[in-house]
């Protein structure tokens, strides 16, 4: 029995196909999200990868910022908060705190036995989100995916004192004008993201194990800075990018079973 | 007897020369602020305008974000909050509320008999500040000083739902892509600034008369939007840009008198 989870984020669309609610048999990621062809392409890709059709799916559940665009395609929609909690619990059964940094928001979830019991969220301010890193990468004329390896080569500590994306961008511009090494600036940017996120995390408290999810979890410069600032070990994996979609596929399996019984 | 007030802001340097603490005999404004040649140029300009020298000034007082850069030039430094209160009281003796929108911050002052008794300030976030308008003008490819006349020609209401500068910029870009009239977008931007500032103003309450100062007070599109959203008449004048410098020159006069007595 197969179920599909689709996570339509602000900047990426992700799909997971799950067998019997246990085994990931296919995944896809398209780097455009809500309001684009991304969700449809992600669905097509994951089905091709598994060599299956929409009809082979027992249940399809959509989550994320743009989930409502999938009415008629998905059997149900569900909040990304629940799906992220569920996905992280599947990957890391001891998880108590999820730090999810997406393209346009930051969420901190407190988890108990795989259920979300509390959360803090910033979706009004670009500071500390993937967008912050996008803006900085553009000013520095480097690719976002090169930020982590470049920052790792930093030798001098450079402070970025503004948390606001706009003011921090000006600081980066004047650092560049002063001739500061890009790699040191990048390291400062990673610390800036970390301190912003830690501020949010402290609102609900941080408990071990801490799992980081979302696109920014792929940037190990941010993960390391967060780890230092938080004083907790942070678990992550390449699969955490699919965390919301995974949670959706798990909930899809649960729904399917319920419907079979009914 | 002449005194000088210098306001070293984040984006402009302003000077006022006052005769006997009563009459404005000279003013200057240079559109670059702290950390540039702006303050020195503004001082040179105002002295040239009045045909005077530094030695002719009985007392020189500096205020604003970059006031500490004028040690050795100014006789004293003073917080811009007090100077703004004092300047506004001179221009509008019935003032109870000052809304000051500068290049990088927003301040709301509650005034009683010319003294500041309470304030609310945002200097951490670019939303609602002059910087917000700069960013939008750049994306729209219009001059900041053309925003007000263009917005006044708007015929259709366009909402900018994000208050964050970064997210609002994306909204503007997608409105442009949809072919929305720039003048309608500009009007939406003015309302966005207004709603952000009103949020801050309500923290301390708004009392008549309301005076608006700072560079953004020259944008009557923002003033009108604020007036509507606030439900209070707003007083402003071309002199309000010099408000901080004016307050500094007034305090300089007071200091001078005190020193003469001592
Ligand atoms: S602090 Fe900066 S990034 Fe955050 S809402 Fe304000 S303008 Fe946006």
From TrEMBL, chains A, B:
<keyword id="KW-0408">Iron</keyword>
<dbReference type="InterPro" id="IPR051805">
    <property type="entry name" value="Dehydratase_Activator_Redct"/>
</dbReference>
<keyword id="KW-0479">Metal-binding</keyword>
<feature type="domain" description="ATPase BadF/BadG/BcrA/BcrD type">
    <location>
        <begin position="5"/>
        <end position="252"/>
    </location>
</feature>
<protein>
    <submittedName>
        <fullName>2-hydroxyglutaryl-CoA dehydratase</fullName>
    </submittedName>
</protein>
<dbReference type="Pfam" id="PF01869">
    <property type="entry name" value="BcrAD_BadFG"/>
</dbReference>
<dbReference type="InterPro" id="IPR002731">
    <property type="entry name" value="ATPase_BadF"/>
</dbReference>
<dbReference type="InterPro" id="IPR008275">
    <property type="entry name" value="CoA_E_activase_dom"/>
</dbReference>
């Amino acid at each position: 029995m197969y179920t599909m989870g689709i996570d339509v984020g602000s900047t990426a669309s992700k799909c997971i196909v799950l067998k019997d609610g246990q085994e990931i048999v296919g995944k896809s990621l398209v780097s455009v999200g809500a309001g684009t062809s991304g969700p449809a392409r992600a669905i097509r890709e994951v089905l091709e990868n598994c060599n299956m059709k929409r009809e082979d799916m027992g249940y399809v559940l959509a989550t994320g910022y743009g989930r409502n665009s999938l009415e008629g395609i998905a059997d149900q929609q569900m909040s990304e908060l629940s799906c992220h909690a569920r996905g992280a619990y599947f990957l890391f059964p001891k998880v108590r705190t999820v730090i999810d940094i997406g393209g346009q928001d930051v969420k901190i979830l407190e988890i108990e036995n795989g259920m979300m019991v509390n959360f803090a969220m910033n979706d009004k301010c670009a500071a500390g989100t993937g967008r912050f890193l996008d803006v900085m990468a553009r000013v520095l004329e480097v690719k976002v995916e090169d930020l982590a390896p470049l920052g790792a080569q930093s030798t001098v500590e450079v402070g970025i004192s503004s948390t606001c994306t706009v003011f921090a961008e000006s600081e980066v511009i004047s650092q560049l004008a002063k001739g500061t090494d890009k790699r040191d600036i990048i390291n400062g940017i990673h610390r800036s993201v970390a301190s912003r996120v830690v501020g949010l995390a402290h609102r609900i408290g941080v408990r071990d194990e801490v799992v980081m999810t979302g696109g920014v979890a792929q940037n190990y410069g941010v993960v390391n800075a967060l780890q230092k600032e938080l004083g907790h070990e942070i678990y992550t994996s390449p699969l955490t990018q699919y965390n919301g979609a995974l949670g959706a596929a798990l909930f899809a399996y649960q729904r399917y079973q319920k419907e079979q019984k009914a």
